[in-house]
Known about the structure:
By secondary structure, this protein is mostly beta strands. It has one helix at 3-27, and strands at residues 55-61, 64-70, 77-86, 89-101, 104-111, 117-127, 130-136, 145-150, 155-164, 167-178.
Amino acid sequence: MTKAMTLSGVLAAISLALPGAMAAAQSFVPAPAELKPAEDSRPASALAPLSWLEGCWRGNVNDREFREQWLPLRGDLLVGISHTVTDGKTQGYEYLRVEIRADGVYYVAVPAGAAEIAMKLEKTAVDGAITTFTFANPALDFPRQLSYRRDVDGWLYATLDGKVKGADRQVIYPMRRVDCESGDLIRK
């Protein structure tokens, strides 16, 4: 027997055995798992009542367009950003988060180029379909208090209260839920 005949015999044996070996090997490969949310036995997050913020919000007052975008609640943290534009130019932006600390729930804003501002959740008020979350920090002049009011028909009212040069001041940002990409109104 020559080497060529031996080699061709081996190759023929392999080609006959290969389909069966492949089928056997595939039967041992586990099927990919479906991507399902893991069932969690932990209690709901203290931030769950604020999870409705998820998504994009837009408002316009006095030729100032303001937007907020919030990521979904994950890991006991809500993360967002706000952006204000007038005549096509950025007037300001802030990085936002709502987090759990040892002494309660806090709304934290980090304005562009400034130190973070933290306000503790002081109360939640429910009046029918309207829910208001009020955060406060009495050590601040303005804003001393921030309220997020979830109103009917997809409205969100962010209200800042405090003092500016000793005088009471209130600023209200009415916003509607919008599609994050198109900016089109969403009724939710």
